[in-house]
Amino acid sequence: MATLFYVHWNEEECLEHVRLLEAEGHTVSCHWSTQSNAKIPAEIDALVISLDRLPSHGRAVADAFWSAKKRQVIPVVFVGGEEDKVKVARDKFPKARFCRRKQLVAAVARITDARADA
Questions:
Q1: Fewest CB atoms within 10 Å of the CB: 53, 57, 75, 83?
Q2: Residue 65 phi/psi, 5° resolution?
Q3: Alpha helices (runs of H) in 1-118, residue ranges in sequence order
Q4: Which segments in the chain show pLDDT lower than 50?
């Protein structure tokens, strides 16, 4: 199973999404506050960022995260969002993974499988 950090700008929705991932056996920590910076753990298998709310904030988190060369090997998964906002993220982060919310469990499973094959 994977160790994930989940970013979503609504506490209730964030915790709901975290529970779904935890039910699949993943270890998930999260951040939802716009009043403080996300403290992303050093040892994670993927950074998951929701584009459903405040997508520019999510892109900023991804940008800061991947600014360190050592973290560029850790996958960033963008989840949800309106198509025009997703396009902006796709253009800025071509190496990121993208999925709809209902596809998130499968997307994380692919990361876990790829890590196991490496």
A1: 83
A2: -65, -50
A3: 11-23, 55-66, 83-92, 104-117
A4: none
Q: Is the distance from CB of 46 to CB of 74 less than 8 angstroms?
A: yes
What are the pLDDT digits (tens) for 81-110? 999 999 999 999 999 999 999 999 999 988
Q: To which residue do tokens 């160790």 refer?
A: 3
Neighbour count for residue 8 (Cβ, 10 Å): 26
As for how many domains the chain has, the answer is: 1
Tell me which DSSP letter residue 106 carries. Answer: H
Check the CA dihedral 99-39-63-73 and report its sign.
Answer: negative
Its domain, for residue 47, covers 3-117
